[in-house]
């Protein structure tokens, strides 16, 4: 009994111990700390950036980002990309990284979840912000003449033109002189892929219409010549995001009216023809078979008008548009191209010629009227009264002059004679010498130099003559070796030779008339005397042998800056030389030879409106040929040139020269070029 009792007591004690132990474990679980989650944040970061979350958990933890946003966000674990990161209690950092790929329209969002003690909480909502689009369009810079400025550093930059520094608010097409139509180079740059989605119908589609992000693209916006609006227009260029058609940039673009575009080129103010219907080419100083040629640029409807000057026995000449009075003028005009798709503004050639003239000198006027003016003219006589009406004189293209039939003797090359100091002209029909010698035609031949009898002074006699008789100033016959005059035949005609040293009358007898030597050559044929030439040798007669009459001036003198032009004269040449002995000697030598000289000085490397207007010439020679590489020129037309100068190097010539020459390489003028900047 006692033993059973002891066993019962021990069992109760054991149960009590177990119960005590059980109560102790339960107390420990209740006392475990709650997870200390950080305050939630909502930052915005850019593409390629990171955001760090500082945590100090009081127990083991796990951070995670959704796999759905794995392409845009991840957790950085050292150099590894992970989407779940674990750690123990204590301070820690969770670094969230965003992808570098930039987007313009979609905000990417990532939730960072922290789990501790069986609980989870979003501790950060991170937004990757969108990129702002950038788009700029700049237009080409224009020079003082309205033309596009080329980029001097195009090789380095890859850009053909220079562009404005500020974005353009609009694009205005322009038609610079010498260009072929309305256009404007532009430079487009954007940080997104773009496409030129809309353009006016009067604009040609550029060679490239798609641009890459971050790249500069030059576009030549060229008007469609077949669709120019007569009265101009303003529309819009639309550049669209290639990946989002809902985003676009609109730039206004305009094209000027072309209704009034009108110009005539290629014709001189005077078009001269000889009796053989050859026209005078002022560039080479020769008579050329055929017709003079020009071009007219206009819209359809421009029209030419011709008026002949008709002389009458009594009263002043009058202008006529009658066919019989214009029959000697040969005007041809390239027809207008009216085929579909042809240009709205066209450049067409025209020619002006004449028939051979067997009588008096002839004169006519050629006018060209723009379409808008021509359509108001129903009768040519609306343009004239006694002369061309003032309001229409602006449309005068050229004055046509044809020489009178010279008679029995004519000069083969009058311009060439001038260059060697000779002249040939017809005497008036009532000249005293014509009656005295009993001839029909009389002429005057003047030599000023020993070489004035060069081949340029060849004359043509229109018949076979049987002899030539020579007479001195007193009209006394000269024969054989006594004559200081002689005539020799060549393959091209005849040349008169003068040897003033043999003139027995000498110079004293002619002092009152300012002529050194005078004599007469009288031509005869089977019917007797038919022509005389009054032969004069006078070294001081003002013709030929230099550049008399050659002029150089600024084309726009009132607008010039950074340049000066001074004519060199006997009064100022020492001052212009400024102590430079080489210049002084050159000035003096050429003044002695009668060669016109000018000093062109640039005080700026890029002067404004310094275009030179010069008399007709055949060639220009740059001097010195070595050492003046800094000097250059560009012909802008037959009579205008643009001179460019750089700063000479130490070993180079301090000044240079432009020598203007005629077709025979005779010096016409010298322009000295001095950079002073």
UniProtKB/TrEMBL annotation:
Signal peptide residues on this chain, from the entry's feature table: 1-21
Keyword Signal: yes
Keywords noted in UniProt: Signal
Name under which the protein is recorded: BACON domain-containing protein
Organism: Alistipes finegoldii (strain DSM 17242 / JCM 16770 / CCUG 46020 / CIP 107999 / KCTC 15236 / AHN 2437)
């Amino acid at each position: 009994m006692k033993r059973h009792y002891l066993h019962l007591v021990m069992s109760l004690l054991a149960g009590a111990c177990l119960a005590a132990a059980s109560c102790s474990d339960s107390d420990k679980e209740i006392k475990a700390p709650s997870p200390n989650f950080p305050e939630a944040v909502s930052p915005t970061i850019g593409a390629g950036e990171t955001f760090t979350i500082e945590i100090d958990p009081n127990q083991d933890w796990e951070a995670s980002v959704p796999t759905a946003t794995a392409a845009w966000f991840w957790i950085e674990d050292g150099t590894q990309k992970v989407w779940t990161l674990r750690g123990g209690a204590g301070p820690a950092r969770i670094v969230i990284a965003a992808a570098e790929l930039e987007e313009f329209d979609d905000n990417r969002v990532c939730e960072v979840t922290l789990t501790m003690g069986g609980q989870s909480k979003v501790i950060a909502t991170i937004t990757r912000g969108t990129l702002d689009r950038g788009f700029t369009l700049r237009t080409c810079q224009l020079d003082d003449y309205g033309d596009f400025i080329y980029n001097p550093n195009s090789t380095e930059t890859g850009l053909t033109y220079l562009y404005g520094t500020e974005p353009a608010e609009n694009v205005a097409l322009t038609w610079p002189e010498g260009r072929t139509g309305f256009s404007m180079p532009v430079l487009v740059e954007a940080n997104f892929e773009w496409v030129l989605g809309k353009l006016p119908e009067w604009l040609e589609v550029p060679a490239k219409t798609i641009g890459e992000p971050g790249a500069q693209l030059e576009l030549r916006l060229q008007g469609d010549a077949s669709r120019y609006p007569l009265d101009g227009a303003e529309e819009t260029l639309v550049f669209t995001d290639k990946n989002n058609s809902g985003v676009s940039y609109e730039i206004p673009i305009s094209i000027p009216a072309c209704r009034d575009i009108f110009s005539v080129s290629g014709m001189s103010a005077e078009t001269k023809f000889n009796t053989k219907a050859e026209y005078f080419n002022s560039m080479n100083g020769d008579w050329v078979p055929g017709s003079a040629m020009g071009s007219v640029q206009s819209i359809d409807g421009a029209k030419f008008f011709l008026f002949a000057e008709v002389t009458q026995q009594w009263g002043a000449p009058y202008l006529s548009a009658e066919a019989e009075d214009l029959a000697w003028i040969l005007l041809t005009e390239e027809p207008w191209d009216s085929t579909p798709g042809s240009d709205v503004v066209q450049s067409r050639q025209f020619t002006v010629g004449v028939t051979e003239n067997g009588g008096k000198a002839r004169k006519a006027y050629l006018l060209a009227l723009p379409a808008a003016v021509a359509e108001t003219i129903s009768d040519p006589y609306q343009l004239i009264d006694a002369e061309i009406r003032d309001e229409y004189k602006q449309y005068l293209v050229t004055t046509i002059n044809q020489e009178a039939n010279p008679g029995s003797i004519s000069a083969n090359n009058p311009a060439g004679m001038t260059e060697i100091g000779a002249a040939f002209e017809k005497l008036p029909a009532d000249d005293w010498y014509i009656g005295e010698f009993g001839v029909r035609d009389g002429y005057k031949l003047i030599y000023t130099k020993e070489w004035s009898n060069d081949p340029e002074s060849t004359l043509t006699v229109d018949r076979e003559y049987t002899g030539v008789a020579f007479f001195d100033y007193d009209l006394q016959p000269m024969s054989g070796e006594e004559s200081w005059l002689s005539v020799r035949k060549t393959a091209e005609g005849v040349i008169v030779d003068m040897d003033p040293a043999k003139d027995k009358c000498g110079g004293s007898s002619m002092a009152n008339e300012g002529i050194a030597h005078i004599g007469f050559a009288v031509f005869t044929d089977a019917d007797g005397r038919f022509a005389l030439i009054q032969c004069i040798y006078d070294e001081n007669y003002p013709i030929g042998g230099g550049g008399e009459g050659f002029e150089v001036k600024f084309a726009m003198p009132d607008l010039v800056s950074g340049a000066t032009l001074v004519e060199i004269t006997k009064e100022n040449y020492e001052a212009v030389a400024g102590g430079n002995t080489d210049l002084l000697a050159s000035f003096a030598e050429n003044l002695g030879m009668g060669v016109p000289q000018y000093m062109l000085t640039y005080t700026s490397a890029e002067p404004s409106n310094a275009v030179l207007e010069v008399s007709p010439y055949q060639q220009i020679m740059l001097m010195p040929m070595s050492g003046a590489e800094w000097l250059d020129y560009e012909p802008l037309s037959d009579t205008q040139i643009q001179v460019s100068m750089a700063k000479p190097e130490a070993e180079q010539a301090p000044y240079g020269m432009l020598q203007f020459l005629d077709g025979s390489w005779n010096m016409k003028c010298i322009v000295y070029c001095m950079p002073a900047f």
